[in-house]
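Archive entry: two folds, one per protein. Generate the first.
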Amino acid sequence: MLTLGLVSHAAAQQYPTRPVRLIVGFAPGGATDIAARAVAQKLGEALRQSVVVDNRPGAAGNLGAELVARAAPDGYTVLLANATIAIPSLFKSLPFDVTKDFAPVSLVGAGPSALVVHPSLPVRNVGELIALAKKRSGELNYASGGTGNITHLAMVLFTGMTAIDMTHIPYKGGGPSTVATVSGEAQLMFSSVASTLPHIKQGRLRALGVSSAKRSLALPEVPTVAEAGLPGYEASSWYGLLLPAATPAAIVERLGSEAAKAVESADLKQRLVSQGIEPVPGGAAAFSRYLSNEIPKWAKVIKDARIPAQ
């Protein structure tokens, strides 16, 4: 056993000896792809080897995830996943088991959503929104990027914790839902800080809170939903690295350590923040703990809201 441990450690020290493939289960240009390309460049510098982004879009990111789950566990095929991978209960069946087929490597960033309302809605803070929604139960409506989308689940969690009833209007993506709310077709929504920031600055949307545990670096004047009157609330999208489950622990730790250091670097931090992504370093152990909390949290939200599996 000692010999095997020494061999594994030596392999980790030599790793990588060829380019690393970073799989993204979404199309180029989206938030997950942006995060992947920013991380790939810095991680490649740290590893002294190319880290090549490989987009494999389809099935809400599950095609890319399946590819990595079935890849050789040698550290050369890595998944850059987003929060969807922690919501397996959203799907009737998956070709992989999130808890058994992957080794968490490191979180790299979180994409907080902003709780925004159309300026015509007479509310200035989270407390006033809750009061109005209770007074006009079932009358207010909210947009989302689609049923089961993180922006939808963020609002489901919000309405569940506040015991309010609002009508859901699902759109085909974050872009259309933002357009609908800016136009007044929908009254409010949770949407990424990156996509709502220009509209907030121009007064086309009013921000009441952000969904993350800490205030957004891009909107420091806007309180978190938790501090604005709903303690314990958090519903951020996030981005993290995963490897096939059987990857040697020494390689997982090496990649996790380098990823955490990369996220701490000033230039990568600046690049992520400019895209509305909050840097979140932490390594393998921290990411593993985070995932173990996220999966049951969203399973309960989906069950309580009776959202049908896709």
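Generate the second and append.
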Amino acid sequence: MTREQTPADILLRISLVEGFTASHLVRLAEAQDRAPGLPEEASPPGRLLLHKGIEAALSSKAAERAHEVRKTCARIGAQIVTLGSDEYPSLLASVPDAPLVLYRWGSLPAGGDPVAVVGSRAPTAAGKEFTRGLSADLALKGITVVSGMARGIDAAAHEGALSAAGETIAVLGCGVDVLYPPEAGRLRENILRRGSVVSEFPPGTKPLPHRFPARNRLISGMARGVVVTEAPARSGALITARYALEQGREVMAVPGSPVFPHTEGSNRLLQEGAAMVTGAADVLMVLGLAGRGWNSSPGAGVGEKEKECDLERRILRFLSSKRHVNDIAASLNVPVPELFPRLLDMEFQKMIERGRGDYYKKTSKPGTPARDGV
């Protein structure tokens, strides 16, 4: 088999036919097993390509496009992960319509217990705050938080995990190099420090509406369970929950007031049998992880939270003018890896602002540390 016809290359070529998934490959490969004249030693992708109908569909033009995709990925630093490779997420590989190829920026966390946290793009302030807290607590238990980097609940889920120095995965409905929503640049940068950004769509793919439901099946497919924290009746998060049911994943939801439309979808999931979640302990119980201990990340107990408050106050006192992160770390005698999640949490609370080159300053009206009085 030539370099251009390795199984990985063939899968890449096939994947560029939009909508083609593992289930299609299996059905076609089974059909080729019944076709005469194919070499017995050929791999399933190779057997598929040797079939004259598929060979015509995946012409030299398709091979040229695959070559261009590889060149683009090399240029932007994105990895191409094919189904069946060691780097392909094992949970997603078990899904019948798993994508043949994933494009990835960053490193996929090695943890075996990812949980998806999703919800409305226009949530209430309380819904966002609960989501951040839940995701932070899950991260402190070693859970990788999976979400879609959309506005609202998705962004809050990533922010919460990052604030606890946890790992998080953003699954996109566009190419990994396409910034969507446009204001998510800082969030994407922070996610790449602690996890990865993945997509089944090749670089440059635009975020068209029909691609987001397809993206949602990846969010649920990469997780052991899905938590809907706040969703109205027609939220895309309900599509993710439906995929989770089809994939045999746990579906959980946070209850809300029946008089508020913001939680109508979440409440309906509970009526249909979703597990109720009021905190991280409920999620761990559903997943059979109730005995898991806290990670040694900042905030692992009341004493540690009090230390966080003290560190926040020290940071605010030091930021009488714009300072670089290395200067803050040196002055406060705190290692940068330990300092970064606290700065990130303070940034989310709008207590401080980060500028170019990791320079920080106080906001014009810094808030009060959220943990004071713990």
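Annotation attached to the second fold: Residues 302-362 form a domain with the Arc Repressor Mutant, subunit A fold (CATH 1.10.10.10). The longest strand covers residues 101-106.
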